[in-house]
Queue: 3 jobs
Job 1
Amino acid sequence: MEMIRRIFLPSGKTCLMRGPYILIFLLLHIIFLLAFFSLVGIPVVPLLCILIYTWVKININAQRCRDSGGKARYIVISSILVYFASLVVAGLGYVGDDDCMLLGVRIYFAYDGLVFFFLMLAPTQIKKQTNSIDRISI
């Protein structure tokens, strides 16, 4: 239960190690694919699934980037830009009946895979917590 809470409400005090990151990422994709294809008959539910899926994915990627020593805001900003751009390309392809829709989906999943492998290979930095006693200088 703690891991599920940490996915939706991240904390600055906890650390997302490589093993739980991989497990969360795989479970997230399995659950998303099952929900997306089983609820395709209701038009609003797949869109809601995509939004929740993207939000959770950006959240865990930002946590993992922070815990490996990077700046989480760079992952968040670049993810939002790439996902929005791929959505626009896919939307233009849907309206124009071109192969751009497939290109938008490819961009989305290629960026997703690239970030996953980059963050999976990144080492986890254990941060030392300093007490107030350690900061006292004589």
Job 2
Amino acid sequence: MMTSTTTLAIGTSAGILAATALSALVMGALATYTLLHHQQVFAWMQKIRRKDQANTELDKPDQWLADLYKAQCRLAQRPCRADEFEDISQISNMI
């Protein structure tokens, strides 16, 4: 009888402590999940930003089309050797 009176005097019981511990674990799991999600979103945003910065050269379509025309004229009406495949891949990337 003394134990229950002491427990009630303190104001805690095993059920309340278990509920508090379970609540803390659930909140910790949610916080971890949220942190991981935000890291993924941040990585995605950085990837998009790098891609946008890499595509700034395409912001000038007249210059881009002139470069494409020059590259096509260089390779027109002549056979390609193995070392010229780099130009061909560049042109295919432009298109």
Job 3
Amino acid sequence: MLKKFAAFVFIMLLALPAIAEELSTKYFTVNMPDDWKVIMPPTENQGITSAVFAKNTSGVSVTMVVGPSSGADAKTIAGMFATQFKAEKPPVEKNGQYTFNFTQQEVPCQAWVAVQGDVFMVSSLAGNQKEALNFIKKNVKSADYAKLLPQ
């Protein structure tokens, strides 16, 4: 009887759909789809949380950096990161956020910078930016900081 029960449980477990991995920080939650992987899980260092995600089958990746803005506005933070990433042009304001393009290891990238209250977020999209932005819109949620996500 115990063997039949164990076999039944095993078969039922096989029948269950795969449960997506969920990663949570104090700023955002990511529901990892099967075709994406975590390159660097959300890690906090000196109040700044960073995470990197990549699509399994292509060179698409998303990097998110979020933390206290220390009183700086989105334009200032965007300018600082644009200089650091050697952006092709100065950041441009879109929907209350700032964006700029840059190239990293010969891969086209786009950064989105936003500030909400005293928190900033830089979302860097590498490779196919439409796929990367789609990943964020479908899989990254934030109850308290939704305005930080690329719009």
